[in-house]
Specification:
Chain lengths: ~900, ~120
Amino acid sequence: MKFLRRFFIRLSNFATGHRADQRLREEIAEHLAFQTDENLRAGMSPAEARRQAVLKLGAAEAIREDHHAEQSISFFENLFFDLRYAVRMLLRSPGFSLIVIATMALGVGATTAIYSVIDATLLHPLPYPHPSELVRIEDDLPGVGAQDVSVSVPEWKDLENSGIFQYVALDGFGSSNLTGSAQPTRIAVKVVTPNYFAMLGVGAQLGRTFDPGDNTPGFNLEAVISDGLWKRAFGADPHILGKTVRMDNDAYQVVGVMPPGFRDQGKTSEERNAEVWAAAGFAAVPFDPPLRNSRLGTAFARLKPGLPVASAQARIDALVASLKKQYPADYPAQAAWNIRLIPLAETLVGNVRQSLILLFGAVGLVLLISCVNVANLLLARASARGREMAVRQALGAARTRLIRQLLTESLLLFVLGGFTGFSVLFCTRKFLLQFVPESLPHLNDISISWGVLAFAIVVSVAAGTIFGLAPAWLTSRLDLTTTLRQEGRGSSGSRQRSRLRHALVIGELALSLVLMIAAGLLLRSFWDLFKVQPGFNPSRVMAIETWLPIPNDPKTDIYSTAAQEAVMLREVLRRNRTLPGVEETAVGDLAALPLGHDENDLNMFPLIREGHDVESSQPPLIDASIVSPEYFHLLGMTLLRGRLFVDQDLENTPSIAVINQAAARMYWPGKDGKGEDPVGKRVRLSASKPDWTTIVGVIADARTESLADAAIPQVYLDIYQRHAKDLAFFLRGHVDPATIAAQVRAQVQAVDPNLPVFHAETLNDILSSSLSVRRFSMEMVALFAGTALLLAGLGIYGTISYVVNEQRREMAIRLALGAQRGTILKMVLRRGLGLAAAGAGLGLAGALIVSHLMAGLLFGVSSIDLPTFAGVTLVLTTVALAASCIPALRAMRLDPITMLHSE
Amino acid sequence: MKEKPDVLQGTLALMVLKTLDVLGPQHGYGIARRIEQISGDLLAVNQGTVYPLLLKLEHEGSIASQWGASENNRRARFYRITAAGRKQLRTETSDWEQTAQIIERFFNVRAEDLP
């Protein structure tokens, strides 16, 4: 309390500028008068009495200082003086200040920009209460190489009753045709168990979410809609509750509207943008009967409060072991069924984490280089201010006091720089966000928030303290007499200072080399990916999606058989062929859309080979695409063996399939490993249906899953034999991408007016957007590397200029004594080259480590790719040499007469 | 700027408070003089150091001050102890006595006294 009272009085004295000097002066005068009187009474002479009184009082100046320190808070007072002085210094050399501020603005601005992305994606990925309790439950069958194979209804019940979780919810993602409004549209729909929202812990803004106790086995025909859909399709109708929406021809009653900020969780942006939620028990029509091996939904759960994931996992392992014993037929030992709990936050960012960390690392290096550059500039200025420091010290300034003042100056510069960077970022955020790929999770949440501002300030202050301290330390360390005696000649700088400067430049060069090599490797990977032969011909191909409704009651489905669907498909294909410019058409399901589908669109079929896996109930899973016969020719996929589909293959003719080479290699390796001919072999592609499918052809591998993956086993089925609901029409020819969607829509809706037609994209666009995250990180790292190179060039230029300036007298003498100008040039260049070589050596070592760490992001290029390493080193050396050339030429042209006269 | 050792400063504050408590309102010189007298001129403290201390005690609320006239009609600043100051004096006195007792016991200890 006493301390606080004292602090506040001093603070208010400081703030109001209240001074008690007058009071002290009077008190001391009185004191001396009293003491003098007493001394006189003791018989001293007046002069002696006065002298003794003063002696007894002590050093008046020290007392006054103590008194003053007590009166106010000297720390703040000094800070205030220092700041005032710093501002004056800053204004006195505007060029220097501008360069420092701009450099720091660049470093802090770039770092803050990347931080804001990371803040939105990695640090705050889950907008739900107690997010650490949420887990994704993945069933794996490592024995047959299958991951995340969904959970069956009995397993879900087991998990619910395990006592580990508060809620376990199943979730199936899909989409539905929303009809009833002017134009049928396709909307992202999640089918969830009724406890889904209770598990997430989010309520509706209007109405309610599902009743977690609802036990309807099939669909309960209630729908919760998103705020976006409510506003877009229903004009934010306040009486929406109780109204009916038709999805896939079924009538659902709207029971709730989610709040505007609500975003669903999910691995893909489609899932996160779900707009309608329907509740179902997953146990009755249209779902399969609830058997242990019919896996149909992804499970999510909220752990009991305070239960760590690791201990929950241990209890799950025990549960799995006991279930395996109880149901040996459903969980054969060779499948090695297990359940993994993954913190939900980790599943959302997944594959972009690595790219973001790379970017943050890169931008961190840029920041470091900016800081080093500024530290170098501060050091350079330190030599110009040697005299000022010497005079101050000679007048009695304590060294700590000088360091504090210099530190205040550099902190002011860093903070101004950081603030400038932040302001620029804030003003250009809309513009910059355009460059962020859409596939980045939570793109809409990226914002320049207070947290980001705090980050920028903390970074600037930390950088200012760390990189301002060394120059301040060295600046204040002076040999007083030498510095003062040098008069106006300017100090030649201490040895430590120049050693530190050289170390800084070497560090800068090394860091930028690391960045440039990283950028070079990414660029080469990207280029290789771009140049890779995809195995299909995407040029002039357009894909347009449509979806057929899947009503909950299969009896009302007008497309329930392949024959029924074939009529519609053939008619639409015939009509599409008549469109202007169209040369070829085909149709397939979404899995057949090369690079354009996400995980949810994949069909994973069990592959039971005749005479091979019949006994095993856990066959391998294979990617399946369902296509029309023209598909292969339209995409330019080559047949290697056997035949493709023909028009005579129909629902009532024997079922056939085409596989790719990778599938042939993997599943028909032959006895001697040379491979056997899969043509003519029979497989079953369903665990429950007994009919056999004959493999009739093998096509060459194509990178339809990912450009980076060469060969993923694929099986193709004929759409006229096995129908699909999620369709993509393919058109090859000279078509106008702007109008083709409307033309195709007209043709499709002429056949069935209830079908939505959407997502018209060229395959080339799809292909290039499949590289968007890679492109984004490559471009960013390249940008950072360019910045780093520029900064390093400036750094070496500054250092060499400084060295030349320092030695100009020596050079003048050499010239006067007859040294060749070429020798002077060489002498300076050798310095620059020495620095560059040291930097490059250090940088190469660092780059080897970094490139090893980022091996996972590379494609087609080794992490110790020699041409990249050599080329980048060459570029850096050239830049360093060019930067030292300017001061070297200046040194060469030195006029010895003028120089020596002026000194 | 180095602070003076805490012990000395704390002790001086205690002396100032005790002086004001016993003798009533005093001016700075009076306080310095009394401390010198009571300590039997053993304390070679610069008299001036009492002024920053007086300001600190005033900030802490242990003493209060106002201008007044001295015995020989000079204008002088008089300090008096406040209620809070008396309380502080009491606690510090007992603390001090306790410390002194403990130290005393240590000084008087002999090897044979210990078991």
